[in-house]
Amino acid sequence: MSLPPGFLDELRNRISLSQVVGRKVMWDMRKSNQGKGDMWAPCPFHQEKSASFHVDDRKGYYYCFGCHAKGDALSFVRETENVGFMEAVEILAREAGLQMPARDPQAQQKADRRTQLVEVMEHAAQFFALQLRTGAAGPARDYLAKRGLKPDALDRFGIGFAPDGWQVLWDHLTAKGVPEDLILGAGLAKPSNTGKRPYDVFRNRIMFPIRDVRGRCIAFGGRAMDPKDNAKYLNSPDTELFDKGRTLYNHGPAREAAGKGKPLIVAEGYMDVIALSEAGFTAAVAALGTAVTDTHLQLLWRIAPEPIIALDGDTAGLRAAMRVIDLALPLLEAGHSLRFAIMPEGKDPDDLIRASGAKAMQALLDQAIPMVDLLWRRETEGQVFDSPERRAMLDKSLRAKIKLIKDPSIRAHYGEALKDMRWDLFGTRRKAAGTSSRAPRTAWTPGGPRWQAAPVPQPSTKSSLLAQPGEDVGDHLREAVIMATLIATPAVIEDFEAQIDRMDGLDPGHAALRDAILRAAPSHAQDADAFRQAVSDEVGADVLESLFALPHVRIVPPVRQPGNIEMARMTMAEELAKLTCQRGLASEIAEAEEDLEGIADEAVTWRLGQAAEARNRALRSQQQDRTEYETGPNGARINRDERSALDALMDKITFTKRGR
């Protein structure tokens, strides 16, 4: 059976080689760099103890330095599953969610035609490159020199010139015996409406060959030399070879450069990409005559986990950035996001590099802001929120955007980040209410970073906060029990990963330990010793020693019985439920305080009572000192600190009602 044109390319774009290979090998995480798609493991094709089998996830190829086995995802499935080529295609297609095409007796004929069209495009690229050296192309060469392009750059990018004539390219190709239907099919000429000969699509333009990821010329972009031309930039029409919504300019070289550690930069046009590449930013790409599509985003994330969108600093560029945000929100996954480098007003990357050099561009890339910050800026910039109605409108808008995110963990983190920004904007007392111990944020400015990092203690610090809980002792102790349980029995992490990820981390030591546990889980969760060693390597042995030395941790059953999965699951479920309910009550108190800025009514007391009752249900399984607790609204039991907070709120409510 023959496959239709482009099917295998689409299949390779949709699958991750590291995921395919990962089913058969155990990755060496000390040698691998998962963020760059650079993975190492013992070879599955021959017996060895060292990790000499290398997978380059971005390029889609593997190679063993021991037995010299090499290939792509298809060859790996063929060798490891002992199947034929079409069976391997079917296996990967099912995994990628691609439907296998019906048997098509004409598929081979179509593939042959695509090969012929590629040959025609290469003939045209050579013709345009030669034309750039003629006398008629003098103004084009002057323009390129003025833009700072040197001869080696022109050769590297294959830049050429289309003469100012109606059938110059047509005559050249037909004289070489190229069939007319192939010239038309390649998008190089258009049929005449008056019955005359077809005419060239590109005339009197600087020509930029557009190549696919394999380096084959599939289309052209042309920059008009006549300032009166209706279209300053003109791309080839969509053809059997070219789909502008699925193509990136400079895709192949950018993927190779990103694999070597260069940041992936998404610019607006050919000249921006060329200027960036010549300045040393060789992992630069651009969409072609269209806004960024969801397919573009998938292609970008296949190259790098966090591309930087570097759009022009004008109104159109900012609008384009905002459209990218709406497109990207439903597609976000853990480790896949975007950052934005907003150019100075009126400048694009090419302008900035020519005016201020590569250092200025690097400084702008270093200050690229996370997508959540640009989303907040869009929803709030230039607006005044001086009434409850306007604040409610902002809340509604933000909730609508957060709902677009499909990944529950990312959705939760976005909600938390946006809520923090909202509290900062309105100056509400969140910290005093005890609802968050996250690191404080600084105000966003175009010239500086958005985030202020929380300090992380050195591993050798004996006075770790793990050993010295702060004011919120109960929650602090529960976090310690949770993390000790996970380290003792890491096999249960998968069952509670989302809740662990949302856990605050009441001090920097807890936060660092939580993050280390989540990072070590994918590779070592089934091997307790390896897992504990991986966590210890990251946070330091002293931190773990301090954690397990805590009296309330030592007596916990899953710590005394490491590896007891059922015991660990029960403890995790109980402690996480208590932590969640405790946070819920504190959050209700904080939000009730904010509600009192408007009109207070009985709903506030009802909400507080419900939250206290939920917390009480979670605590009933544990013996409590009855003298520590009193009765709250609806009969819920709360501790004295919470009682004081509720009393203060009730006084406010009474005062507000009397003053109506």
TrEMBL record:
HAMAP family: DNA_primase_DnaG (MF_00974)
Pfam families: DNAG_N, Toprim_2, Zn_ribbon_DnaG
Catalytic activity reported: ssDNA + n NTP = ssDNA/pppN(pN)n-1 hybrid + (n-1) diphosphate
Record's cofactor remark: Binds 1 zinc ion per monomer.
UniProt lineage: Bacteria, Pseudomonadati, Pseudomonadota, Alphaproteobacteria, Rhodobacterales
Top-rank lineage group of the source organism: Bacteria
Annotated Toprim domain residues: 262-346
Protein name per the record: DNA primase
Zinc-finger ranges (CHC2-type): 43-67
